[in-house]
Amino acid sequence: MGPVTKNVAKNVADTLATGAATSAAQSVKLPPRTFMRRIAADKTANTIAISAASLVPLMAMVGGGVDASRYYMTETRLQAACDAGALAARRSMDDDDFSTEDKQVGLNFFDQNYPDGTFGLDGLSRDYTADSDGTVTGSATGTLPTSIMGAFGYQQFDLAVDCSAEINISNTDIMFVLDVTGSMNCNVSHSNCSNPSDSKIRSLRTSVMTFYDTVDSATSQSAQIRYGIVPYSHQVNVGGSLDAAWMATSHTYQSREADWEVTVTYEPETYDYVRTGDGYNFEYQERIETNDYGVSLDECRDIAFNQDRSQIFVSSDPGGWTQVSQTGTDPRITSYTGPARYEQQNFDGGTYYYGNERCQLFFESNYYYAESDITVTEGRTETREFFWAYRPVEWDLTSLYSTGSLSTPTGWEEANETHTWNGCIEEAVTTRDSVWDPIPTGANDLDIDLVPNSPETRWKPKLPSLTYLRYADDSDSAYSSSNWVLGDVTRSDEDKVNADTTCPKAARKLAEFASRSDLESWISEAEGFTAGGNTYHDFGMIWGSRFISPDGIFADENTTAPNGDAISRHIVFMTDGTQVVNSRLYGLYGMEWWDRRVTADADYSQQSSNHAERFQAACKAARDKNISVWVVAFGTTLSQNLIDCATPGRAYSASDSTSLDSAFREIAEKIAALRLTA
Questions:
Q1: What does the alpha-carbon distance between residue 200 and residue 208 come to, in Å, rounded to a whole number?
Q2: Number of Cβ within a 10 Å radius of residue 268
Q3: CA 528: distance to chain centroid?
Q4: What are φ and ψ of residue 172, in 5° steps?
Q5: 517-555 burial, b for 16+ CB within 10 Å, e for fewer?
Q6: pLDDT in tens, 472-481
Q7: End-to-end CA distance of the chain
């Protein structure tokens, strides 16, 4: 019972006691009989006297109850109006400075909730002030006339209420998932897309700082406020936050490898013939005269009689040979059997001249054929012509994680090329399903709590310099899907087209910023926070959810705060466009026309809807973990796809830089838990 109620009850009790004492005194001192005394003495009139006497306490009790009820209703309504005004005034403040305008906002809200004269309150006075910490304090006073208790000497109640409101944030994790696609280099009207001073990415930088300032001004010194940032386009750069154990040791890329065309020829160097059969088909040729000078008579005789002139090889026809064996490669020695043509020379007289030591001899020449063993010794000649075979190739990646680069024989004529990894990735194994609620089995990419432990669950480094488009004809056809080739392509030149890709700035894990300037530097153009690429909402949401989840790969960092209090988790997702897919771009799922991990035939419409469904699945996965999802559509339509992603009531549309700033400020204020403190 409050002090006002106690006073009312005491007054009612005092009144009843006084009435009782008076009645007792009258019953002792009897005046002379009068008409009234006669009626009092008349037993038939006792009921009237008793009823009259009971009206006094009854009026006090009823009157006290009525006026007490009016008091409480008035005080409750007055307190609610004071609270509403304090909250409105605090929310109106951009920082801890309390302006005349902020005060007027509070007074207006008070008046809307408690119009002057409500419940008959007189002399209403209300006021709002604020201290240097930005806490708004309000007060209201007034006088409430009584309705019945005035008959007992109580004419009014004095009412006074106090209220205060502040923004005070406890442990909070905030993950910015920010669209940094090429259109962010345009202004809102898209009349200039060369990163003008009013470009959308510049407006985004300003609004992020507004968000930070709003939260920072409301942060308790004992609280932990951490920020993470995932810039996304058709890639996310998260490799720097991942352990090597979570990365694949090998992976198949749409790559190329050497395909030498080797031509080998053999040229006969020597022939050895050994006759193995009798001669046949003798043919007389001619009578041959030979003259040898400077020889002796005995030598002349040897020439004439002692030398075998019956097996002189003349020629052969390899077409009639049968190969027996072949050994070696350089030289290559091949054995054959078959006919060979020989010459037989028979001595037919001669003369020896002593004067000049001349030996003149005559022979008859006959050709014939005979079966032989033929041994051919051939010298090897090799010519090599270099070609590229463009096809899926599996590469060993183990050296990449220790050195930051990978060397492969993908240069001209198998020269080594060095490929560096900048942190963008390819996703874990997924499925081609089109329905994603619930998430299908095998869709590891949509498991925001995935901790890789197998080839199917590990992530792969994105290596665009190792990845190529496959197409027919020349490079002019490389960007036309009608010329793309799913099978192998062989080329004899360096007319190559590497994968088309963009890798945003490396994502930032949740951590406290040491100062405002640290955040300002992080999102600056000079530090690589720039725009480029196509819009894939699912990529940003998948990894924003992974970074902020209290479970999964970052559970050790995200589950608890140093002060032991609960953590409020929020994803702030901002985009300036609808999802735009492109089958040749190198994204989280490789080059989708060739890798086909999302759709079986890389159909554009199916690909687009499939990514939209994946986006919704990632949003739901975050919401299911009690993570608030805030969505801001900047300079674009707030589509149903974006609305459905957000936690109900937390989707915003910003048509220009001013409204973007307002949206970010409002989100920050709501995250900062604007609340009554008294």
A1: 12
A2: 13
A3: 17
A4: -145, 135
A5: eebeebbeeeeebbbbbbbbbbbbbbbbbbbbbbebbbe
A6: 876 567 888 8
A7: 20
- Which residues fall within 8 angstroms of residue 588, CB to CB, at 6 or more apart? 234, 235, 236, 425, 426, 427, 445, 536, 539, 542
- The Cα–Cα gap between 168 and 135 comes to 10
- Count of other CB atoms within 10 angstroms of residue 199: 21
Could you count the other beta carbons within 10 Å of the beta carbon of residue 384?
10
Q: Would you give the distance in Å from CA 429 to the centre of its chain?
A: 15
Place of tokens 């604020």: 130
> Does the bond joining 440 to the residue before it have cis omega, within 30 degrees of 0?
no
| Strand extents, DSSP E, 276-416 | 280-293, 312-316, 322-327, 332-353, 358-385, 388-396, 405-408
Alpha carbon distances (Å) from 518 to 212, 315, 524, 558, 589? 11, 92, 10, 21, 33
Which string of DSSP letters, residue by residue, matches 85-134?
HHHHHHHH-SSS---HHHHHHHHHHHHHHS-TTGGG-EEEEEEEEE-TT-
Spatial contact of 340 and 374, defined as CB atoms under 8 Å apart: yes
Helix (H) or strand (E) holding 629: strand 628-634
The whole-angstrom separation of Cα 300 and Cα 86 is 141
What angle separates helix 537-548 from helix 604-623, to the nearest 10 degrees?
Answer: 20
State the number of CA atoms in the 13 A half-sphere of 572 facing the CB. 23
Backbone angle region of 470, left / alpha / beta, with phi > 0 → left and psi within -120 to 50 → alpha: beta
- What is the per-residue pLDDT for 302? 93
Residue type, 598: V
Q: Which of 662, 671, 668 is nearest to 627 (CA)?
A: 671
* pTM of the predicted protein model: 0.70
Residue 66: pLDDT band with limits 50, 70, 90: low
66: enclosing H helix or E strand: helix 46-92
Query: Under 8 Å CB-to-CB from 589, ≥6 apart: which residues?
Result: 426, 427, 430, 445, 595, 597, 598
Q: Are 265 and 331 in contact (CB under 8 A)?
A: no
pLDDT in tens, 159-218: 899 999 877 677 899 999 999 999 999 999 999 999 999 999 999 999 999 999 988 887
d(CA 139, CA 163): 6
Respond yes or no on whether the N-terminal peptide bond of residue 268 is cis (omega within 30° of 0). no
Q: pLDDT exceeding 70 applies to what percent of the chain?
A: 87
Residue 222 has pLDDT above 80, yes or no: no
CA angle 79, 649, 540 (to 5 degrees): 135
